[in-house]
Every structure is written in structure tokens, then in C-alpha cells.
Design brief:
115 residues; alpha/beta; Rossmann fold; 4-stranded parallel β-sheet; 4 strands; 36% helix; 16% strand
């Protein structure tokens, strides 16, 4: 089944790495289609604020949440804040960039270096 963005109006989407670049572009497209957004960022407060200003122009319901998604504890906190705000999440867009370790994904652990 193919879903078009216009069919998602009113859904709740969580976008990691949403403060700039591709994540901000995705957020802007989904905001223009009327989705409710959870916008995750890790450290760049200025960029997150700029993204929030863009979301305000669309008049959508959104929340900025600062969390390092390379940390399982931070992910749990992000999830709980999202549930408190919206009650559920319909879509997750895992866009955050992390430093890569040169080994197969299946062999990764929480102890591997990350940025």
C-alpha cells in the first residue's frame, strides 16, 4: 500500500535530527501537510530555534525535544515526552547522524563511540 503525504494529515511524526539540513526539510514538508511533529535535536539550540520559527509559520502542533538519540536513556526520555504531549506516535523518521564505527551493524553495542 502506498501512502501519500497528503493522506497523513493529523498524524504524529517524530523526526530525529530535525534542527537543520534534511531533518528540517522533512519537518517543513510534513508541517505543510498538517502533521503534528516531535522535533528532536541534540545540541544546536540556535538551529532548533530556527526550525521552531518555521513550524510556527505553518500553525501546527509541535514540540522540540533535546535528546542525544545515541543514548538509550535519552531515547526513553524522548519517547516519554512525546507520549505526554501527543499520546502516541504514528511515524518515526530516524534522521539523526552519528559517527560510524567500521563494523557490521549487528555487531554494534551501546559502548561503541558516538558523537
Amino acid at each position: 500500500m502506498i501512502l501519500y503525504v497528503s493522506e497523513l494529515k493529523g498524524k504524529v511524526a517524530l523526526i530525529t535530527g530535525a534542527s537543520k539540513g534534511i531533518g528540517r526539510g522533512i519537518a517543513e514538508k510534513l508541517a505543510s501537510e498538517g502533521l503534528k511533529l516531535i522535533l528532536n535535536y541534540s545540541s544546536d539550540e540556535r538551529a532548533a530555534s530556527e526550525t521552531a520559527k518555521l513550524m510556527d509559520r505553518y500553525g501546527i502542533n509541535y514540540q522540540l525535544i533535546k535528546a542525544d538519540v545515541s543514548s538509550p536513556t535519552a531515547i526513553e526520555g524522548l519517547y516519554q515526552q512525546a507520549l505526554t504531549k501527543f499520546g502516541h506516535i504514528d511515524i518515526v523518521i530516524a534522521n539523526a547522524g552519528v559517527e560510524m564505527v567500521d563494523k557490521p551493524f549487528i555487531d554494534y553495542s551501546e559502548k561503541d563511540p558516538h558523537s
